[in-house]
Amino acid sequence: MNYSLILFILGSLLKVEGCFLLLPVLVDLFYKENVISSYLLVAGVCLILGGLASHKRPERGKLYPRDGLIIVALGWIVLSVFGALPFVMTGDIPNYVDALFETISGFTTTGASILSDVEALTHASLFWRSFTHWVGGMGVFVFVMAVLPMLGGSTMNLMKAESPGPSVDKLVPHVKDTASILYGLYLGMTVLEVIFLMLGGMTMFEALTTSFGTVGTGGFGVYNSSMGGFSPYLQNVVTVFMILSGINYAFYFCLISGKLLTAIRMEEVRTYLLVILVAIVAICIDSRHVFQGFFDMLGHVSFQVASIITTTGFSTTDFDLWPQFSKTILVILMFVGACAGSTGGGIKISRLMILFKSMRKELSLIVHPREIKKIRIDDRSVTHEVVRSTNVFMVIYFAILFISVLLIGVDEKDFTTNFTAVVATLNNIGPGLELVGPTQNFGFFSHFSKFVLMFDMLAGRLELFPMLILFMPSSWKKSK
Amino acid sequence: MRIIIVGCGKVGQTLVEQLSKENHELVVIDVNPDKFEQVEDSDAMCIAGNGNSYQTLLEAGVKKAHLLIAVTGSDEQNLLCCLIARKTGKCQTIARVRNPVYSKEVEFLKKEFGLAMIINPEWAAADEMARIFQFPSAIKIDRFAHGMVELLHFRITADSPLNGQQVIDVRNKYNQNVLICSVTREDQVTIPGGDYIFRENDTVSVVARRYDAMDFFRKLGLMTGRVRNVLIAGGGKISYYLTASLLKAGIHTTIIEMDKNRCEYLAEMLPQATIIYGDATDEKLLDQEGVEHAEGFAALTGLDEENILLALYTKAVSKAKIITKINRIGFSSVIGNLDLDCVINPRIIMADSIVRYVRASRNSDDSDVENLYKLEEGKAEAVEFIVKENSPVTDVPLHELKIRKNTLIASIVRDGKIIIPSGQDKIQVNDSVIVVLAGYSISDLKGILEQ
Predict the structure, then answer these.
(1) Which of A50, A431, B14, B31 is the most exposed place for a label (fewest CB within 10 A)?
(2) ipTM exceeds 0.90
(3) Is A154 in contact with B41 (Cβ distance < 8 A)?
(4) B294 sits in which H/E element
């Protein structure tokens, strides 16, 4: 462990968070709900602490992969701990554990809330709550890398630890440029959605918060009915942007750099779109009696499918009332998740592709025991390391899933609630079924269960390994 | 600058490391993705694939690249790769070509393949070794202004008259035309002021004309005459090039090589040299071949450990000027402490020459980089510039220029004359100016001014 370097990077992170916290201040200047002082105070604390921690730049810094994992895990915890303070100080969420849950749910782009009445919050807090999605979506370290001068190429290990997917590649040679390009695309997408939403009659505030939730695949709404109260046009815009946000950002980079063919040939993106299509058709057939008219059905079903597979978690209607088969499809989609390299959570399409292909390989190996076969994606063979870590990922994933279900079982709620609560948090979706369904909230869980779910959210967003390595004593050893 | 490096072997890795320090956009291509682990810390993009494939080169962005450097293990592959890159994009190309057969046809290859540069690390290393054998007082010689000016590095031993002297006295006492440029003490490079005191084990570099340098070293009591015979352990490519150039200078050379076929080959290619078939690490054989009376010894076997051992042994039994070839880059601090006299690393020589090319090809309206040498692993640099018309440093007396700390204008070459500059001298257009600087790097002459 390189402690001075960790301190420096965490300090930079706090400074960035301090700057972000100034945005709700602007919102409050507009709405005048007298919460300025709370946000200013927390921003000040972040800036001062961050400045102190990062004032001395470590002379030589090399980040090993494990340092990357640890810094990212610690960073996200620090981020959430400070990000929760304004909620308590403004009195919007008086209990700190609840505030922490809400903040982690925000940063991890889960969208699971403990609030029963969202509309009672001040505008500044609503904005901050949605903005955490935006920060967490593309990753806060990616942002830090894009704006701050960092320490050489080994910061790639930070990006690898934070960005979702079985293997993370650079778009251009420099890490800093890669980070800037990603944030540029992300910002572009957000602005585009804001424009489309405002054309449909949303206020600036609604359009911004909704876009943060969509593009970051978060799912915090500013109304109790989530997206239900908006016009079909607005719902359809959100559907489209949710689907777009679930696509690997390398796809957009290929598009803007003129590599159309490479973009179109991306196997993961095509599979992702195919899964969405099949799911929509299947649910439409199964639940055709629930809706009035074809377009009403198509709108709601495609919104819900997009919302679940991209792990956003918005809802236009209470899908807990849909037929069982449709609900089952939705729960399965929760596991699937979006593309690697997108802002969405879940297991990720590319991992599932690798798993299915290795399954086929194993079967084929039974028929031809001496066969040598490579797993290929996008016509490139996947290295053995990636296949192995994907397998291990799945094992850890299910281990965490079942242990979490067991742990929150002590609250004595029904199985569907517990199971879908864990699935919805571990995959960063938000709503589950029954007591945690789209019209319900997570407020009734005990503090202990909330901590378990918070861990699940962080583990899910950071793809398990960073959170687990914190518990490995040997990873805390000192190194140069 | 966007640079594509094809081949991520040891040479490729050294290049990535050096060029990423200069903040270029690097793309590395290699067939074997396992090699990329070695360059993970450097900010480079890695692409697995064959560098000779048009598709792979396109993926690496050859159309937008400024330079492609082909350093795979095979000469033919490197040439082909450069040719394809040349036809696809507009980038400059550098190929590593090592086979002695081709080395005689460098100019032809450069022209026909449109290459900007051909690098041959073995030849470059041999060239430097040959220079040292011809001027054994120094442990390293960097040439400027077509060889008119030399930057000579030497080490201060315990019994050296310089030990304990002040810099200011040295010039007065020994030679007015010798300028002390830099001192390396315990890994730290400094540009010494007048009150700096030399100590044992300092490595000092001086700039001077050959004649003045000889005079200076003679007064210091260091041997100055060139060696008359050289014993080489190991008969690889460097041995071949070194022997060829030593023989041309009339220095008798003996090579000890343990592979029979290689001996036959060397005997055929180098009829004037003495080729001994045997194990160079055999103490008896070395004694038999007169290691005690050798004036020059080069340890050039394939193993670093063997080379170090041979050098230490020869040091103990003879007064020969010893050159040790080290391939490895790591552990340099330990190797530095071993008192090996003169250590040459072919890969570093080659990486330096590419860094030099890259810096030189950055177009500047101020000055052109003509030569560049890195001192002590890049902690300091000696750079030669040709001054252009728009440069802000011309026609101002040097003492009026606001020059950054740790910078020394070592000499000015004008119309074939060398000026060791004083505060009154001025830099003029078309001068070639040699600057020594520590702790930072520049790509044009105005970089020495304070911002």
Answers:
(1) B31
(2) no
(3) yes
(4) none
As a whole number, the mean pLDDT across chain A is: 89
Q: pLDDT for B13-29, tens place per residue?
A: 888 888 888 788 899 99
DSSP designation for A317: S
Domain with CATH 3.40.50.720 in chain B: 2-119, 229-344
Name the phi and psi angles at A459, rounded to 5.
Answer: -60, -40
Please name which of A214, A162, A177, A213 lies closest in space to residue A13, comparing C-alpha atoms.
Answer: A162
- Report the residue from A62, A172, A383 with minimal CB separation from B41: A62
Q: How confident is the model at residue A124 (pLDDT cuts 50, 70, 90)?
A: very high
B2-119, what's its fold? Rossmann fold (3.40.50)
pLDDT per position as a tens digit, A294-345? 898 999 999 999 999 999 988 888 888 899 999 999 999 999 999 988 888 8
Which chain B residues are Cβ-neighbours of A176 within 8 angstroms? 43
For B34, the closest chain A residue by CA position comes to A383
A424: alpha, beta or left? (left if phi > 0; alpha if psi -120 to 50): alpha
Which of A160, A172, A180 to probe the B interface (max B CBs under 10 A)?
Answer: A172
Q: Which residues contact A257 (CB under 8 A, 6 or more apart)?
A: none
Chain B residue numbers touching A153 (CB-CB < 8 A): 20, 40-44
Which parts of chain B sit beneath pLDDT 50?
A: none
Q: How far is A259 from chain B (nearest CA, A)?
A: 10
d(CA B302, CA A281) in angstroms, rounded, equals: 68
B166 shares contact with chain A (CB less than 8 Å): no
If one looks up domain B229-344 in CATH, what number appears?
3.40.50.720
> Cβ of B25 and A174 within 8 Å?
yes
pLDDT digit string, tens, across residues B322-369:
999 998 877 777 777 777 878 898 888 888 888 888 877 776 667 778
CATH 3.30.70.1450 domain range(s) in chain B = 140-220, 365-448
Taking one residue from A and the other from B, the number of pairs with CB-CB distance under 8 angstroms is: 32
Q: Is A170 on the interface with B (CB under 8 A)?
A: yes
Q: Does the pLDDT of residue A382 top 80, yes or no?
A: yes
Residue of A60, A156, A158 for testing the chain B interface, max B β-carbons within 10 Å: A156
With CA atoms as reference, report the closest residue to B206 among B434, B449, B440, B441.
B434
Please tell me which of the candidates B25, B33, B40 has its beta carbon nearest to residue A173.
B25
User: Are A197 and A234 contacting, i.e. CB atoms less than 8 angstroms apart?
Assistant: yes
Q: Is A42 on the interface with B (CB under 8 A)?
A: no
* pLDDT in the model for residue B179: 85
Choose between A273 and B418: higher pLDDT: A273
Q: Check A153 against B2: CB less than 8 A apart.
A: no
Return the CATH superfamily for domain B365-448. Answer: Regulator of K+ conductance, C-terminal domain (3.30.70.1450)
pLDDT digits (tens, 9 = 90+) for A210-229: 999 999 998 888 888 888 88
Q: Work out the pLDDT band at A360, boundaries 50, 70, 90.
A: very high
Please state the length of chain A. Answer: 480
Task: Report the CATH architecture of B140-220.
Answer: 2-Layer Sandwich (3.30)
- First-last CA distance in chain A: 7
pLDDT of B329:
75
Contact with chain A for residue B58, Cβ under 8 A: no
Q: Which of A213, A220, A24, A28 is nearest to A113 (CA)?
A: A220
